[in-house]
């Protein structure tokens, strides 16, 4: 197995996840099979209990794993299906070591960070790297590992030491370290400063790891003298200093890396030049160029609880982007805090109330994504009511589906709480092949999508709701859980218990997001007719 390790220096939030994903894309384009591991040094065992405000979206995998949003980037960029084991956390490592200690597996030895924790990290990385994620048999050629946080953080020290040992044990031809750092520009002089990166690399080297490549983040392209200074003081060849400057959209990043021959430097370090092919990124080039040239936009009202941090809905935003580009449109998202639509802000915060309702009324379609707790529910119900009564295309996801049921029932629908979260990929059976959802999925029988919910619609009220006009067109395999609802008298009013955004990919948009955008432009009927006729 060949390993590419991505570390970060100077500051957090430099885009290591996008860098790691883009490097994976370039290596895939060279004909190699790629898998990914994200290391999160926090003590949580997974991201399931984390607040979206603090850590962004919780991404859900097919096997039910609740993981860091960077794994969503990996899946979208590389078009792979990862497992919960692909997200390694301090919590998981310590838990496994302590479990072994309680069982007596260490035969009475003193259990320490070195060697027991570091050995557990190495063993976990080497085992996970062998798991196939691209639908083919056998392990991948290259495993891209992203180490979360910043070099020098106390919490990541055991991982740094474990990765140092791993680099030594696998040999220099099987390990490539890429350090992502910041090149700031200070003051009116506008000089690109290399000192923060020099210090970051020095700290990394002091910990026993030497970068083979530098990926330098900057607002503008790096100047030649900046590159030479970095090369001289960081002991990295000038050809191996990559510049990831700001670009119009992230689909340019693999192209940026390819244009700087990043693949050649990585393949040379990993001794893979003889088996790799020249990178074929034609589809990526088309996608990036198409997005750059779009002029027409569609206004989407996103009515949610966590709109203060857009990363809370990262997969929803990406799914909207994929669907809009398929329709030759740019997404123009109006973020509406659900609580601002409620009656109380009309008195306490009239400006926020007026702005929220103006955004909702100006939207061409409405989306209510998932969430937990009752804050903002009244505002979401008002948004669903507005969309239903004014024939505005509506898509409710998870909580958004339950909101549409409550709103339709007027007095509110009773729901019951399951004993545990329902997580991972589950099958939904369509009750009729004539429903809009089955036509969009191009499957009259079923669809497999990922779930993350605890509440469900009470089956006792289904009959009353269906008599009133709401149709539950998708159910689980027991027939008791309501998975998809539609309002046949409406241009597009769909609620789903699952999360279709998690399986949306560039060039392969989620069927329901595509339906929402098509309906917003009045093109849904024509699209469905074309596809029914096989064209």
UniProtKB/TrEMBL annotation:
Organism: Gossypium mustelinum
Stated name of the protein: CTP synthase
GO MF, one example: CTP synthase activity
Enzyme Commission no: 6.3.4.2
Catalytic activities: UTP + L-glutamine + ATP + H2O = CTP + L-glutamate + ADP + phosphate + 2 H(+)
One Gene Ontology term from the biological process aspect of the record: pyrimidine nucleobase biosynthetic process
Pathway info: Pyrimidine metabolism; CTP biosynthesis via de novo pathway; CTP from UDP: step 2/2
Source domain of life: Eukaryota
Domain Glutamine amidotransferase intervals: 309-517
Every CTP synthase N-terminal domain range: 2-272
Keywords: ATP-binding, Glutamine amidotransferase, Ligase, Nucleotide-binding, Pyrimidine biosynthesis
A Pfam entry, by short name: GATase
Primary role: Catalyzes the ATP-dependent amination of UTP to CTP with either L-glutamine or ammonia as the source of nitrogen.
Family: Belongs to the CTP synthase family.
């Amino acid at each position: 197995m060949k390993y590419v390790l991505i570390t970060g220096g100077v500051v957090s939030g430099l885009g290591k996840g996008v860098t790691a994903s883009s490097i994976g894309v370039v290596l895939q384009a060279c004909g190699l099979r790629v898998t990914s591991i994200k290391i999160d040094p926090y003590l949580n065992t997974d991201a399931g209990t984390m607040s979206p405000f603090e850590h962004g979206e919780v991404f859900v995998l097919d096997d039910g794993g609740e993981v860091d949003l960077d794994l969503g980037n990996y899946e979208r960029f590389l078009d792979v299906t990862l497992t919960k084991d692909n997200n390694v956390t301090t919590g998981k490592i310590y838990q496994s070591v302590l479990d072994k200690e309680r069982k007596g597996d260490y035969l009475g030895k003193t259990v320490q960070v070195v060697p027991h924790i570091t050995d557990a990290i190495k063993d976990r990385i080497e085992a996970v790297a062998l798991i196939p994620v691209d639908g083919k048999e056998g392990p991948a050629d290259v495993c891209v590992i992203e180490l979360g946080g910043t070099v020098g953080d106390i919490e990541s020290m055991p991982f740094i030491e474990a990765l140092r040992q791993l680099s030594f044990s696998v040999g220099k031809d099987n390990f490539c370290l890429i350090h992502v750092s910041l090149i700031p520009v200070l003051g009116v002089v506008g000089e690109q400063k290399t000192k923060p990166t020099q210090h970051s690399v020095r700290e990394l080297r002091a910990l026993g790891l030497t970068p083979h490549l530098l990926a330098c983040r900057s607002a503008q392209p790096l100047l030649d003298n900046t590159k030479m200074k970095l090369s001289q003081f960081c002991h990295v060849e000038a050809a191996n200093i990559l510049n990831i400057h700001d670009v119009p959209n992230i689909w340019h990043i693999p192209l940026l890396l390819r244009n700087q021959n990043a693949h050649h430097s990585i393949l040379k370090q990993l001794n893979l030049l003889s088996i790799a092919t020249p990178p074929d990124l034609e589809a990526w080039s088309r996608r990036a160029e198409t997005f750059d040239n779009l002029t027409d936009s569609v206004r989407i009202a996103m009515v949610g609880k966590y709109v203060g941090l857009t990363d809370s809905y990262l997969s929803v935003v990406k799914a909207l982007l994929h669907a809009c580009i398929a329709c030759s449109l740019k997404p123009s998202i109006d973020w509406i805090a659900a609580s601002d639509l409620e009656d109380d802000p009309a008195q306490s915060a009239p400006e926020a109330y007026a702005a929220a309702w103006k955004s909702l009324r100006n939207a061409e379609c409405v989306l209510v994504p998932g969430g937990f707790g009752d804050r903002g529910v009244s505002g979401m119900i008002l948004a669903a009511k507005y969309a239903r009564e004014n024939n505005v295309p509506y898509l409710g996801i998870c909580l958004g589906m339950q909101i549409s049921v409550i709103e339709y029932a007027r007095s509110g629908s009773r729901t019951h709480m399951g004993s545990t979260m329902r997580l991972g990929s589950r099958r939904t059976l369509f009750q009729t092949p004539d429903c809009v959802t089955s036509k969009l999925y191009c499957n009259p029988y079923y669809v497999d999508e990922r779930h993350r919910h605890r509440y469900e619609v009470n089956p006792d009220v289904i009959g009353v709701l269906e008599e009133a006009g709401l149709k539950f067109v998708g159910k689980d395999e027991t027939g008791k859980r309501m998975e998809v609802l539609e309002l046949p008298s409406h241009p597009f009013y769909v609620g789903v218990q699952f999360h279709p955004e998690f399986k949306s990919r560039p060039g392969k948009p989620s069927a329901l997001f595509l339906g929402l955008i098509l309906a917003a432009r009045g093109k849904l009927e024509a699209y469905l007719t074309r596809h029914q006729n096989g064209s």
